[in-house]
Design brief:
Chain lengths: ~350, ~290
């Protein structure tokens, strides 16, 4: 295909991506270097019968005019990145100096909003991803062994947790684990503790969010593995059986190697999707015990006074985070590509 | 049957079937429970006394005289105007799917047919874009959109969703196009078609399965999206998912959680039907990218 034709075919799609994905990234970077204008204060002297007082009032008209004039706010350099709500260098140094043990330091660190969100996001990503892979493979092996008539309905049911909107799926779970909901009430009954609430304790909230994540994503890896299992050649399996391999050995030495590229694919997708976790935190209203990077951006953007600079700084940090996370996988893909190309 | 190896595999079969049954329960029970419970009153669905109340509707009978009630649905659809957001969702989703597929088939075809090195780099770029968390992009849109006065409108959201959808659409359609032999369009061009005519009249007709599968995933992305629709749509243009999220704040205060439950079930039903009718396509779509590496 000549370059010209290629260009005309690809241009609509490429334009959409550049305009609405690449440019917003630049916009985010610009915004992150600015901060909203402070309110314009006017001091005036008001004199009454008991003498004069200095009064400071907010000049609303001037404030809104200034904000309309320079919507981006004023240039603030890297302040957005280093302030308390983001990387909080000063607070971290202070916490380091004032803490006697690593534990105390970590505790102080997790009180800072950015590090709190980062801790949950990373935990969520790195716990959910391996669980999803193992659980998905187990379900795939189980379903593969089912009689033919049962496979279709099983796959139908299995797809539901993944297909259903994350916000809705997590709400459904949230209602069930509510103190008065079916799971929540049963757990209170089992442990004989009427005050036990899955929502009140941070560690239980983290656990519930992670359980939701696994429940939501396991179908994806199940389907991918299930399709992969169909492509494992029967001959190889038979040969292994004749050579005396038992069921477990056949899985370990024949099936699993065939699944390797699929594991890379699922890991890549799961890292991307779990790192952006947002909906379950909104549904579970868990911000007291667990927040994520996406959630702090969302909160900055939807609060009454929208903090564009702050949201943008977190966004840039999030993008850097996902880049670091994916670099090994991308590097591998690139290496494989250049190996096949030459 | 006395072969010990086979005996062991029967017990293993029981374990593996049991495991699958357990998984089916875990996957389906929450939905069935909520579907059933949406026809009860709050006192039953969130029963302090006994969880079986939600099954039999004890409080529901006391409060409404029947063991099923559609009060939640009435509240959501009539009192809170859920219907409007359903229409908005339909507009957003259909437009997003149609535009995404149009751009995506053109681009995916070009990527599959050109052997140039830069087509690989475009695919890699798309992968990087795919990794971008949607909310980070939203924080880039908001300020410019406010400035240009295009915030809050449905078309703006559609355009954004199409763009966010492109990386994935390109990848998927590209891998479907690779499956169609090159000879097909080449012979059409030998017969005098231009490249675009060959694409339009020869390739697209055999590409329908791939287009439908990709369309399903575009549908799901637009339908399930929360980050973009919740922050880019004004109150009156809200689609279902942000509407449900805004329900949560208001209904919990008023004690009308059942409105939200009914709305959630209403939004869930189309997805169920979708999986029921297009199960095969969804499965093939999920694996399209994977099996080829």
């Amino acid at each position: 295909m000549p370059h010209r034709t290629f260009f005309w075919f690809i241009i609509p799609s490429l334009a959409a991506m550049i305009l609405f994905i690449a440019l917003p990234v630049i916009s985010v970077i610009t915004q992150s270097l600015h901060v909203e204008h402070e309110k314009v204060l006017v001091s005036s002297e008001s004199c009454g019968p008991f003498g004069c007082k200095q009064i400071t009032t907010i000049d609303a008209a001037a404030t809104s005019e200034l904000r309309a004039d320079q919507p981006l706010g004023k240039f603030s350099g890297f302040d957005n990145y280093t302030n308390r709500n983001h990387l909080a260098f000063e607070e971290v140094v202070l916490a380091w100096k004032s803490s006697e043990s690593i534990g105390a330091f970590v505790e102080k660190l997790l009180n800072l909003p950015f590090y709190k969100a980062l801790a949950f996001t990373l935990t969520y990503t790195f716990v959910v991803t391996p669980f999803v892979i193992v659980l998905g493979l187990a379900i795939a092996l189980g379903v593969n062994a089912l009689p033919k008539f049962a496979k279709g309905p099983t796959i139908f049911v299995s797809l539901l947790p993944m297909i259903v909107t994350p916000l809705i799926g997590s709400l459904i779970l949230f209602w069930m684990i509510d103190g008065d909901g079916v799971i929540g009430a049963s757990i209170q009954y089992i442990f004989n503790d009427p005050d036990l609430s899955l929502k009140a304790s941070p560690s239980l909230t983290w656990m519930m969010l992670i359980v939701y994540g696994i429940w939501h994503s396991a179908p994806f890896s199940f389907i991918v593995f299930y399709a992969g299992l169909q492509s494992v050649p029967e001959d190889t399996l038979e040969a292994a059986t004749i050579d005396g391999a038992n069921r477990w050995q056949r899985i370990r030495y024949v099936v699993v190697p065939y699944m390797k590229p699929l594991v890379v694919f699922i890991t890549l997708m799961q890292l991307m999707d779990n790192f952006r976790v947002l909906e379950p935190i909104v549904s579970f209203a868990s911000e007291a015990s667990a927040t994520s990077l996406s959630w702090i951006i969302y909160k900055d953007l939807t609060s009454d006074t929208q903090l564009f600079g702050s949201a943008a700084a977190t966004s840039v940090l999030t993008i850097i985070g996902i880049a670091i996370l994916l670099l090994p996988v991308l590097f591998r893909t690139w290496r494989d590509f250049s190996r096949t190309a030459h | 049957m006395s072969n010990p190896a086979q005996r062991r595999s029967t017990s293993l079969a029981i374990i593996s079937t049991g495991f699958v049954l357990l998984w089916i329960m875990v996957a389906a029970a929450p939905f069935l429970w909520t579907l059933w419970g949406s026809f009860k009153v709050q006192g039953d669905f969130f029963s302090k006394a006994d969880w079986t109340n939600a099954l039999y509707g004890v409080r529901t009978i006391v409060e409404t005289g029947d063991s099923f009630t559609s009060n939640g649905y009435y509240g959501a659809w009539v009192e809170h105007g859920f219907g409007e957001s359903v229409i908005n969702t339909m507009i957003v989703v259909v437009s997003t799917v149609v535009i995404s597929l149009t751009l995506g088939t053109l681009g995916g075809y070009a990527l599959a047919r050109s052997g140039f090195k830069y087509s690989f780099w475009i695919l890699m770029l798309a992968l990087v874009f795919r990794a971008m968390p949607h909310i980070t992009l939203v924080s880039g849109y908001l300020l410019p959109f406010f400035e240009w006065n295009i915030w809050g409108y449905i078309p703006t959201t559609i355009v954004v969703l199409v763009a966010i959808n492109q990386p994935f659409t390109l990848w998927m359609l590209h891998s479907f196009f690779l499956n169609i032999p090159k000879d097909l369009d080449e012979s059409a061009m030998v017969d005098g078609c231009t490249r675009f005519q060959a694409f339009r009249h020869v390739i697209i007709p055999v590409m329908w399965p791939g287009v439908i599968t990709t369309g399903l995933f575009s549908f799901l992305l637009a339908y399930n999206d929360f980050a973009v629709t919740a922050s880019l749509l004004s109150q009156e243009n809200q689609t279902m998912i942000p509407k449900i999220a805004s329900f949560l704040g208001t209904t919990q205060v008023e004690g009308n959680v059942m409105f939200a439950v009914a709305a959630v079930v209403s939004a869930m039903i189309p997805l169920f039907l979708l999986v029921m009718f297009f199960q095969r396509q969804i499965v093939s779509g999920l694996t399209a990218g994977a099996v080829k590496g």
